[in-house]
Amino acid sequence: TRFRNVTGVQTCALPISDSTEIVVDSLDEEIIQAMENVKAILTQAQYNFSDVVSVTIYMTDLEEYARMNKVYRKYFPDKSYPARTVVEVARLPREANFEISVVAQKQ
Questions:
Q1: Residue 61 pLDDT more than 90?
Q2: In this structure, what are the phi and psi dihedrals at residue 46, rounded to the nearest 5 degrees?
Q3: 34 CB-near residues (< 8 Å, 6+ apart)
Q4: C-beta of residue 74 within 8 angstroms of C-beta of residue 45
Q5: Is 12 in contact with 99 (CB distance < 8 Å)?
Q6: Strand pairing partners for 10?
Q7: Within 10 A of 78 (CB to CB), how many other CB atoms are there?
Q8: CB–CB of 50/87 below 8 Å?
Q9: In b/e form, how buried is each residue of 15-40, taking b as 16+ CB within 10 angstroms?
Q10: Per residue in 80-94, pLDDT tens?
């Protein structure tokens, strides 16, 4: 497939607050913070979650998949979910339990 006049943005986010501290209150809070960080980056680049075409999620415990998915889905209210890969990892930077990488594009 050929794409013409496609622009895009790729970003990766940990659950780091404005104070540059990792949010570790709960997994839900980590996910919300990371998703809000992605939202801020997308917004600054004039994109939004409806422009996201690919997501990779790294988690330290896949037993928490359903819990993660419940929070994640709230950021895609039109149920137009992008392609997604979820990977369990032994460790993430700064002892986080969740990290997300997204690719967004507009034509």
A1: yes
A2: 65, 40
A3: 13, 14, 15, 96, 98, 99, 100
A4: no
A5: yes
A6: 103
A7: 7
A8: no
A9: bbeeeeebbeeebeebbbbbbebbbe
A10: 899 999 999 999 988
